[in-house]
Amino acid sequence: MACLYWMLTGRTPRGFPPDADPVAVVLREPPVPVRERRSSIPGRLADLMDEMLDETNEAMPASASELSRTLEEML
Question: Can you say how many angstroms the Cα of residue 62 is from the centroid of all Cα atoms in its chain?
Fold first, then answer.
């Protein structure tokens, strides 16, 4: 999902300050909601992206195939 986020916004889901340990940033910092980076992303897609980038969320597609089906249903 981070790759899709990058493709749609041109930015990573988290900010990485120059002095910060990237692993620490990923483990400690929440992702920036995708619509804060690009407000034109449709709501359902933005919600799915935000949910999948939230590591505390357990209700997400379990496989790439399931994610693919979920994205196709949005079209």
Answer: 15
